[in-house]
């Protein structure tokens, strides 16, 4: 068996320790930042009696380790605190915002995989030519340019100046009201499909296209550059060159022999870039007013909403750990030589 039971248990325990460590560090940082949590919790016009009551409820009179103990006790019971901004449970807010972020990230990741890998292979087959130089330049530019800058530029050009694509949000509110669209799962593409609401589906895809494209630029550039370099390396190996000598068509060599050796490391790198894409989505959501985790986290930071900030950090750490584990398992599945 490529994956041992001991390895899975070990990685699961490591995941738990990572999440708890991130939770503890974030909790301590929110407590040492110079702010008055009791004032944020009770409101700007609270009386001294209300502020005193707030300090007792938040355990602010206790040492930090005691406050952390109370938070962990509630956390393991499923109580992640109450947002000081929305006045609703943090876990409910996160679960409400999560589908929007996942829809954006999954679309961007699929776009990066479908376009990036074939683009890198094409560039490798055109090695040294003008088209290869163009692809290399564009992928270097895409991988090195900050995602929020690209988002602002494309939003201004395509959304504000020309009006070709919507500049923000997930769907036109008036259209959703007129057609009776009601989100069920939070994934607007899926909801509009299941409800047979074609006008809303087209509008959702129109709103999704620009932020998903912006978010896909980095993983697309990464997968393209990696698939290009690996394909060039594989095509120059002796066993592949011998196939060319025997007169086997290049298309067959590429897709039957070379591509198999390229896909394993490319897919592994794409899986790891998924975590970066999730973080990059935060900036994209703020630019496009996309009501996901990133927008929620941005509003929480601006309002010093500590329970919401801690909840977002925990959720991101959990996703990062799960993504790393899944990437390792996919690597084992694709390459039988690997043992874990």
What can you see in these coordinates?
- This protein has 340 residues and is an all-alpha fold.
- The chain has a domain at 90-290: MetI-like fold (Orthogonal Bundle), CATH 1.10.3720.
- The protein contains 14 helices and no strands.
- Helix 7 packs across helix 10.
- The protein is globular, with a radius of gyration of 24 Å.
Helicity, as a percent range? over 70%
Rg over CA atoms: 24 Å
Helix count, DSSP H or I runs of 4 or more residues: 14
Q: From the 3D coordinates, which CATH architecture of the domain at 90-290 would you assign?
A: Orthogonal Bundle
The overall average pLDDT, rounded, is 84
Q: How big a fraction of the residues is strand?
A: under 5%
| H and E string | HHHHHHHHHHHHHH
Low-confidence stretches: none
- CATH topology tier name of the domain at 90-290: MetI-like fold
CATH class annotation of the domain at 90-290 = Mainly Alpha
Helix-and-strand structural type? mainly alpha
Measured between the Cα atoms of the first and last residue, the distance is 9 Å
Q: What gross morphology would you assign?
A: globular
Specify the biggest β-sheet: none
Q: What is the count of β-strands?
A: 0
Q: What key attributes describe this structure?
A:
globular; mainly alpha; 340 residues; MetI-like fold
SSE order and pairing:
Layout: H1 5-32, H2 37-42, H3 48-57, H4 64-76, H5 90-125, H6 130-144, H7 147-161, H8 173-179, H9 188-194, H10 198-235, H11 238-245, H12 250-288, H13 293-302, H14 306-334
In short:
The protein is 77% helix and 0% strand. The chain is an all-alpha fold.
């Amino acid at each position: 068996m490529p994956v041992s039971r001991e390895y899975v248990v070990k990685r699961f325990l490591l995941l738990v320790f990572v999440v708890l460590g991130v939770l503890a560090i974030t909790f301590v940082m929110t407590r040492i930042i110079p702010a008055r949590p009791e004032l944020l919790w009770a409101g700007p016009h609270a009386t001294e009696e209300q502020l005193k009551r707030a300090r007792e409820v938040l355990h602010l009179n206790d040492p930090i380790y005691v406050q952390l103990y109370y938070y962990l006790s509630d956390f393991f019971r499923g109580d992640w605190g109450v947002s000081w901004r929305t006045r609703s449970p943090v876990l409910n807010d996160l679960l409400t915002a999560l589908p929007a972020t996942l829809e954006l990230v999954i679309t961007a990741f699929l776009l990066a995989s479908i376009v990036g890998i074939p683009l890198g292979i094409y560039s490798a087959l055109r090695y040294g030519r003008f088209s290869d130089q163009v692809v290399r330049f564009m992928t270097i530019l895409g991988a090195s340019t900050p995602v929020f800058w690209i988002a602002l530029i494309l939003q201004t050009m395509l959304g504000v100046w020309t009006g070709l694509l919507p500049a923000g949000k997930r769907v036109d509110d008036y259209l959703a009201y007129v057609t009776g669209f009601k989100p069920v799962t939070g994934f607007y593409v899926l909801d509009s499909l299941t409800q047979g609401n074609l006008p809303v589906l087209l509008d959702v895809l129109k709103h999704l296209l620009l932020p998903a494209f912006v978010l896909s630029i980095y993983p697309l550039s990464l997968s393209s550059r990696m698939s290009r370099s690996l394909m060039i390396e594989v095509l120059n190996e002796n066993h592949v060159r011998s196939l060319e000598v025997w007169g086997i068509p290049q298309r067959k060599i590429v897709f039957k022999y070379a591509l198999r050796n390229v896909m394993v490391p490319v897919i592994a790198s794409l899986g790891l870039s998924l975590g970066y894409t999730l973080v990059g989505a935060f900036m994209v959501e703020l630019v496009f007013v996309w009501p996901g985790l990133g927008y929620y986290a941005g509003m929480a930071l601006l309002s010093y909403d500590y329970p919401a900030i801690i909840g977002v950090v925990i959720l991101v750490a959990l996703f990062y750990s799960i993504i790393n584990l899944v990437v390792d398992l996919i690597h084992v599945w694709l390459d039988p030589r690997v043992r874990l």
